[in-house]
């Protein structure tokens, strides 16, 4: 598991302006958060906690490709990292999407913090496929639900 978290930290840092500075910032602030820019290597789909856990479980049960997923414990939301441009591929109501110009406040994957935690994922830079996420979330995000509306 330690290798996976180090690999994820390195992969996430590559999407910042200065990879080494990002890793050093995480290292110097063990319980701190780093703002990761969206829309460069990934976009993030925000799904409320209970619904996000249901989608996560469905994806695991289907042996779907799971990319990094950040669970914000305080606000109880999950952020599924998907390929950039995924909003255009979402077949249903627009999700809450963090994309170009947006930021994701994220802890160092190598250290657990109370605020947020990265869920286990493949360390190879794979992202969650938006079509699989939509099918997993479709049953739990009813049409017209504010969680499915663009903000």
From TrEMBL:
Name of the protein in its database record: Uncharacterized protein
Species whose genome carries this gene: Streptomyces humidus
Superkingdom of this protein's organism: Bacteria
């Amino acid at each position: 598991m330690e290798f996976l978290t180090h690999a994820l930290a390195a992969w996430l840092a590559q999407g910042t302006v200065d990879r080494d500075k990002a890793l050093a910032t995480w290292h110097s602030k063990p319980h701190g958060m780093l703002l990761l820019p969206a829309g460069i290597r990934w976009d993030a789909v925000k799904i409320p906690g209970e619904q996000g856990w249901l989608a996560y479980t469905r994806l695991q049960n289907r042996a779907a490709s799971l990319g990094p997923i950040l669970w914000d414990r305080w606000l109880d939301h999950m952020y599924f990292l998907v390929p950039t441009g995924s909003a255009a591929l979402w077949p249903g109501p627009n999700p809450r999407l963090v994309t170009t110009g947006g930021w994701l406040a994220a802890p160092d994957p190598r250290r657990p913090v109370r605020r947020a935690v990265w869920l286990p994922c493949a360390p190879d830079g794979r992202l969650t496929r938006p079509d699989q996420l939509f099918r997993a979330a479709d049953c739990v995000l009813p049409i017209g639900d504010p969680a499915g509306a663009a903000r």
